Automatic annotation (TrEMBL):
<comment type="pathway">
    <text>Cofactor biosynthesis; coenzyme A biosynthesis; CoA from (R)-pantothenate: step 5/5.</text>
</comment>
<dbReference type="InterPro" id="IPR001977">
    <property type="entry name" value="Depp_CoAkinase"/>
</dbReference>
<dbReference type="GO" id="GO:0004140">
    <property type="term" value="F:dephospho-CoA kinase activity"/>
</dbReference>
<dbReference type="Pfam" id="PF01121">
    <property type="entry name" value="CoaE"/>
</dbReference>
<feature type="binding site">
    <location>
        <begin position="11"/>
        <end position="16"/>
    </location>
    <ligand>
        <name>ATP</name>
    </ligand>
</feature>
<keyword id="KW-0173">Coenzyme A biosynthesis</keyword>
<keyword id="KW-0418">Kinase</keyword>
<keyword id="KW-0067">ATP-binding</keyword>
<protein>
    <recommendedName>
        <fullName>Dephospho-CoA kinase</fullName>
        <ecNumber>2.7.1.24</ecNumber>
    </recommendedName>
</protein>
<keyword id="KW-0547">Nucleotide-binding</keyword>
<keyword id="KW-0963">Cytoplasm</keyword>
<keyword id="KW-0808">Transferase</keyword>
<dbReference type="InterPro" id="IPR027417">
    <property type="entry name" value="P-loop_NTPase"/>
</dbReference>
<comment type="similarity">
    <text>Belongs to the CoaE family.</text>
</comment>
<comment type="function">
    <text>Catalyzes the phosphorylation of the 3'-hydroxyl group of dephosphocoenzyme A to form coenzyme A.</text>
</comment>
Length: 198
């Protein structure tokens, strides 16, 4: 089974490409979804978060108040490390379980959708790294349009990530998403044909 790591930068079009891959019928393991699942009430990471951060970070319904927790760790690097050390191992564990599930099922290819593929330590897990790229100007425009953010908010978010140009050097294949959605689809198909997925 070939494992493809899909990544990008904020508003580069990763979700757009991920939806195309899903349409091909290829299984996708989504790191963002998993990172929400592992902090659901009753899960191991949930228990550890409440033990470390106190029940003040809970909503009335018992769910973790992600906004509140986010603002705590955003301001404090030590707390951020504590949270990551709780959440990341559980995310990796869940991803491994899902990889094993698809492997046993006999899937030919799966895609791991991982926003921080290069920033994290998961590159060793995948056989191919696929980057969705846009130029800085398009990235800023699409981010502002999608999230209705100000230019400053959008720039702050873009600048908090590894620049897309740096990620280019680390990828096995790059989809240039500056053009139309259909053009992106054609590029994706060509790459998958090259990798013998189709
Ligand atoms: P990401 O998942 O990388 O953050 P999205 O897939 O959400 O990015 O794309 C960012 C925004 O740009 C979305 O509003 C999306 O609809 C739009 N978009 C993505 N690709 C294109 C494209 N090729 N042409 C025009 N708009 C696009």
């Amino acid at each position: 089974m070939i494992k493809i790591g899909l990544t990008g930068g904020i508003a580069s079009g990763k979700s757009t490409v991920s939806a195309m891959i899903k349409n091909f019928g290829i299984p996708i393991i989504d790191a963002d979804i998993i990172s929400r699942e592992v902090v659901e009430p009753g899960e191991e990471a949930y228990k550890q978060i409440v033990a470390s951060f106190g029940s003040d970070i809970l909503l009335e319904n018992g769910q973790i108040n992600r906004k509140k927790l986010g603002s705590i760790v955003f301001q404090d690097a030590d707390q951020r490390i504590i949270l990551n050390n709780i959440v990341h191992p559980q995310v990796r564990k869940s991803m491994l379980q899902k990889i094993n599930f698809y492997e046993k099922k006999g899937e030919k290819a799966i895609v791991l959708d991982i926003p921080l593929l290069f920033e994290g330590k998961l590159t060793g897990w995948v056989d191919k790294k696929l980057l969705v790229y846009v130029d800085p100007k398009t990235q800023l425009e699409r981010l502002i349009n999608r999230d209705h953010s100000t230019e400053k908010q959008a720039l702050d978010r873009i600048r908090s990530q590894m620049p897309l140009d740096e990620k280019k050097a680390l990828a096995d294949a790059i989809i240039d998403n500056n053009g139309s959605v259909d053009n992106t689809l054609q590029q994706l198909k060509a790459i998958f044909r090259q990798w013998h997925i189709f």
